[in-house]
Please model this.
Amino acid sequence: MKLTKEQHEYIKGKNSYIQEGFVSKLFATILKKKLKNNSEFKKAVDNADKAAQDLRDEILKAEKEGISIPSGLKKYAGL
Amino acid sequence: MAKSKAEIEKEYQDVLKVSSSMLSDLTKLMDDNAKAIDKKSKGQKKFNDEIKQSLSGISSYDDISQQVLKAEESFNKLKKDRRRTENGSLGIARVQKDIVIKTLKTEQRRGELISIANDSANDLANQKYGFFY
Model:
């Protein structure tokens, strides 16, 4: 659905538009849609997932070898 | 309560930075495991110092690749000393180096994601409400 200019002007005058909610939510929804169809973004998500998994595996292996791992680092890795 | 523009801008700028808590955790990793080695040689001390120096040299995502290479170089220098064994200090150094590098690579991948999302958001914002009409 597309808004007419008059509808846009009306919405612009509303409190919710001025304060934040409406526009930021709409912006986030459209951005989410745009990113879902972006193959570069999907590839980057896969790469990030793989890197995080590699890190988790390395940390678990290190702990078995008696290496002390800071708790913040484990949290960062999602463990 | 709605956030002010300055607060939103600060949050946004923070997202674009390399995680400082992650960097300090990596420094802690180096310090904690150095303490575990009773008699540190000059080479081990140098390795620890070089890795910590590399970590302190990271402020943006662009710095990461260079510092990963430096960490590899530091480890290779340590490895050249044949007196160290995989079951001893060299093994600990290798694990430390692998964790440092894998953490930095994870952060780099996260940065790539943020950059793509940021570019898409900018494209959308530059359409000047084009998505309304």
